[in-house]
Amino acid sequence: MTPTTPRTGWRAIVHALALGLSTSLLVIVAGLAVVLIVVPKATGSTPLTVLTQSMDPTLPPGTLLVVRPTPVDAIRVGDVVTYQITSGQPAVISHRVVSIESSSDGSRTFTLKGDNNALADPAPVTAAQIRGVVWYSLPDIGLVNQLVNGSRTWLVPTIAGVLLAYGAVMVTIGIVSAARRRRRSTAGAAAGGPRRRASVAGRRRRGSVVVRRRRAPVAGRRRGRRSSGAHRATLG
Description:
The protein is an alpha+beta fold. The protein has helices at 10-43, 141-150, 152-235; strands at 46-49, 64-68, 80-84, 92-102, 108-113, 125-126, 130-138.
């Protein structure tokens, strides 16, 4: 078998770039899946996207917020809380708690304010309106979250199709490369076979000639010895 010829020049560069890009893409997709899907599902959190500038510069537009359900008693001044503008409605706002008031019946209300706003929010927020406290945030990833959560009807099948196509291409490349290596090894073995046979045959022939040349002097010596012995016997 002949060793595989290593890639050199521009082919090696293209191969390295393709491998690096594909690996980076897979890592990015896996990371986004963990941040946008796995962690929120595992913890019961909700991924949200900042759309306004009310929390600049702490949480600029496009920031991903992961809001985790938190007991009302655990909320403290300084926490960023996500609450419903109207109780029971999907529209929400994420602002910082600036004060907490407790009533005689044990209920609590919260005054919230955007970091970039001059005034606090007009109405106190009740416990029923609060969705949770911002657990962590990631800049600019909110745009991806908005795309994923707002386009699930076509985005998920598209991503699945792209990943399947990528897998099929990689499998095809692997099969073609393996077939090429087998062809090269077969061709090398076929080319090396007759040469080895010829060299072995040549060695055998040369060996037989040498043996014959060595035997000739031995035979001559034996004949000379016999003739001299015979001659001596006649003289005696």
